Amino acid sequence: MIGVVGLVGLIAAAPYRLQRITAFLDPWQDPLGAGYQSIQSLYAIGPGGLVGLGLGMSRQKYNYLPEPQTDFIFSILAEELGFIGGSLLLVLFLLLIWRGMRTAIAIDDPFGSFLAAGIVGIIAVQVLINIGVVIGLMPVTGITLPLVSYGGSSLTLLLTALGILLNLSRFAR
Fold first, then answer.
1. Which range, of 18-32, 62-76, 134-148, 158-172, averages the lowest pLDDT?
2. What is the mean pLDDT of residues 25-42?
3. What does the DSSP 8-state code read for residue 53?
4. What pLDDT, on the 0 to 100 scale, is given for residue 157?
């Protein structure tokens, strides 16, 4: 109950949060306002088809999808590289997560194991949230796609975390 009250309080404190939730539920209610990014993201993914339009041939990145190099980079990649390219990117993320969890399980030190699992968990959740937002399964949040989205602070912290994970992998049995 306290969590629900806190959540309602956070939403009431900033009206844009409520707009994002209503835009998630029905983006066509405000297609030029709060629902604009979600609609344009889906318009970018659709024409990609199976093999895409070709690298660099995206139409949505030219003044349709705002700031496509940041949070909605996956929709541009899906438009340019198609279902196959988007699926390949997801397989690479799954491979990174699998190898990270394998490292976390193989470390004898409990702290190192928990640290590795935490780093992998952060990456996995960030990927899930970003892809969920881009394909319309979650409200727009502003979470970047790890290692792909443009962004200095997010990329710097992610590379630091991956360096720690790589160092921890040296101690796996």
1. 18-32
2. 81
3. S
4. 93
Provide the domain limits for residue 143.
Answer: 35-169
- Specify the long-range contacts of residues 164-169, CB closer than 8 Å, at least 24 apart: 164/115, 164/119, 165/100, 165/103, 165/116, 165/119, 165/120, 168/103, 168/104, 168/107, 168/112, 168/115, 168/116, 169/103, 169/116
- The whole-number average pLDDT for the span 64-73 is 83
CA distances 10 to 5, 27, 139, 151, Å, are 9, 22, 15, 26
Which amino acid would we find at residue 152? G
Q: What is the predicted pLDDT for the residue at 61?
A: 83
Residues 6+ apart with CB under 8 A from 171: 107, 108, 109, 112
- Establish if 136 belongs to a structural domain: yes
The long-range contacts involving 121-124, CB below 8 angstroms and separated by at least 24 positions, are: 122/161, 123/93, 123/96, 123/97, 123/158, 123/161, 124/93, 124/97
Q: How many domains does the chain have?
A: 1
In a domain, 118, yes or no: yes
Which residue, among 111, 130, 31, has the nearest Cα to 72 in the 3D structure?
130
Look at residue 28 and tell me if it is in a domain.
Answer: no
Q: At what angle do helices 110-134 and 73-106 cross, to 10 degrees?
A: 160
Q: Is the pLDDT of residue 141 over 90?
A: no
